[in-house]
Amino acid sequence: MRHLLWIIAALGLAGCATQISVPVSGQFGNGVPAAGQATARTSGEGDFWVQAPGGKRCSGTYNSLDTNPTIVVPVTCSNGARGEIVVTRQLNGLSGTAIGKLSDGTTGQFVFGDLKFEQAFGAGGKAKSGG
């Protein structure tokens, strides 16, 4: 039901804005911080990118109209590495987490929207377990 309300609200705003962008922040598995942006468009085209300062840039595309709370998105990086990220969105559809692994063995943990890294992964940078 909440997803339906979010879709109705998004469609109602479609006349006002054709896209919405949110910040992405987190780290690659070796502790290197990275930041970027995710953009969802009312056309259904979504894209994201993250980059470490002076390091690789990774990006991908997704269907921004997909209402599933969790989606798997292919990612390609500037150093040639490829992989997948698992994106889990909160009920508002504008915040959530992304975890992934690349072909070069690099892992990553990211948050987007108004979610803070420590809320999702704890101060030590590891995913919180349900308890």
TrEMBL record:
PROSITE patterns: PROKAR_LIPOPROTEIN. This is Lipoprotein. Residues 1-19 form the signal peptide. Keywords: Signal. It comes from Enterovirga aerilata.
